[in-house]
Design a protein that fits this description.
Length: about 220
Amino acid sequence: MDIQQIDRGSVKFIRAFDTVEQIQDWWANNPMAIGCAFVGRSNVGKSSLINSLFGSKTAKTSKTPGRTQKINIFTFSLTKDPEHKVYYLYDLPGYGHAQVNKSMGKNWKEIMNSFFYFINGKTLLLNLQDARHPNQKVDQQFYQYINPELIDIFLVFNKIDKLKKQKEKAALNKLKPQLLKEYKAMTQIFFASAESKEGVPPLEQSLISFLHGKEL
């Protein structure tokens, strides 16, 4: 039996938000929108992983951390779906970059506060962390910042291919029970690599399962 996948040819950019009013209007007008949002520390490889899942030209990659300061919204569909249902992808600005100036930092806080305050219960949050530097202080602060009762989270340790030693992988795997206990909103943990595509297929299937579950 063929496995359902994200239809990479269906992904379309629809708009970008950088004001509180735009975000409030979006959630007010789309309360039943089913989708997923990607967020993580700056330079964690978020855009690259999005491109691995949704197509190589979906998110713009940059060598300058903290460059993205808008919430970019895309629509996408799944293969083998006779109803051609539309889902939403939210590419959120990275957090924790020290060189972002004060005005940009203030704007980030305002739009992110609004996004997570008004977010519906049908949007999965994928929190990306660097497998080489897991659970940094800014990551911990992010989990303190969000409301776990309103959000389902997949934690994705990206750049797993950069861990060359077995003891490094073992140490990261050993961290899983602690994180699942500490962060109540987190439901699953994945190890992945946007570069080698390791771990991307199971992440994609779990994402699709979430989308189907929210259709009920």
